[in-house]
Here is the input.
Amino acid sequence: MNLLLHACCGPCACYPSQELTKQAVDFTLLYYNPNIHPYREFKRRLSALRELAEKQGYRLIIDKSYPLEDCVKGMLEEPTVRCAFCYRMRMRYTAKYAADHGFTAFSTTLLYSPYQKHELIVQAAEAAAKEFGVPFFYQDWRPHYQDGVDISLALGLYRQPYCGCVFSERDRYMEWKKTKTAAAESPAGDVCGIAAEGKEIQQDKSFVRITKKIIQLQKQETILYK
Here is the structure.
């Protein structure tokens, strides 16, 4: 199997990539996440994924497209929950790229986080697989969430303090104002980022150089969503 693995960030890619390596699966990471706001955060997450790829010797394809207006519009117009747009847009891009470039299957590190809407991700991925004619490779990595956290901490990767979109960035501060016990009630560690006691983890990592295993794509003028 030649797997294209969509990666939302470095920390979430740690365990899935390690497990796939153990399973002798030939995979390539793909960074395509124009839903992450603001742009500074987008770059920090990309830098962390680059760092992971460099340290572990993984292949990485990067698309730095950032159609902010289209993403916000898509989330606002989503008839169900805004996360559905983010999942659908990224899964359609990944499936199409896989189909166009000879990959035999695709998957996503979004399946690793217990804080994501797991069934909605699977639904979006299966729909994209059917649309573009490439199989969706499903594995539930959530039971090994702490293992991934441990790997990312050992590698010194930046761990983000919120989901990614501008709305989740807003909501985390609003929730913090609503109750001062939020930190005590939240699990130690993070949602891919929220540190214990409500403090953000501050880790600035130097820019990681691009090697021959990392492919930089041209930015796309549009994003794939309906």
Summary: The mean pLDDT is 83. The domain at 2-160 is CATH 3.40.50.620 (Rossmann fold).
